[in-house]
Amino acid sequence: MRLYLKNIGMIKEADVKLDGLTVIAGENDTGKSTIGKVVFSLVKGIQKYEESLESKYRKEIIRYLDNFYARYHIKIEKSKNGFLFFPPIFTDNILKIRKNNKENFDKFIKNYIKLVNQIDNSEMLKDFKLLIAKIKETFKDNDLKILQEEALRRAFFSEFRNQLVSKKEGIIKIYEGKEKKIEIEINKNGIKLENSLDINLDDVTLIETPIILNFSDMIQRAKSHFEEEELNKTLIRLESDVVYHSKDLINKLTNAAKYGEYKIEEKLLSYLKFDFKYNDVTSEFVYVKNNKEFSSINVADGIKSFGIIKLLLKGSYIKENTLLIIDEPEVHLHPKWQIEYAKLIIELVKKDIKVLITSHSPFFIDAIDKLSYDIKRNYYFAENGIIKKDNDLKLMYEKLNVAIDELENLEIEEMFFKAKNWK
Question: What is the value of pTM for the model shown?
Answer without folding.
Answer: 0.82
